[in-house]
Known about the structure:
alpha+beta; 2 domains; four-stranded antiparallel beta sheet; two-stranded antiparallel sheet; 6 strands
Amino acid sequence: MAGGSPPLPPATHLVWVTLGRPVDRSASSRAELRSHGVLPGAVQLPPGGHPVALAAGCQTTGGYPVILHVIAADLPRLGQLRPGDGTRFLRVELEEAQRLLLRQQRELDRLEAALRLRTERFLQEQRRAPAADS
């Protein structure tokens, strides 16, 4: 799947995103696993073979093999995928995933501060407006 996958089928919602075409599961991996903890971003391989990426509203346990995990910084992108969108997975080391998440958080913090400032300025202008009309 690292080279990309075909467009998403129409099974996409808050709990999971079905990714691309089915993956051939070897006979040794067809057995169900015991339930284990899962988090948003885990990509499971259920018996039908269609990889399923767990999204924000996913369950807390699962029994299918987890074949990869979407990094936390990319979870918002996962949530924005629509049927027909292509997907591509690249290997990311832990340190890089952490760096990307920190960068994303800093960008969100800057955006929040800018919005707060604009809101305060707008409210100040609104408070002054009636006085100017009198």
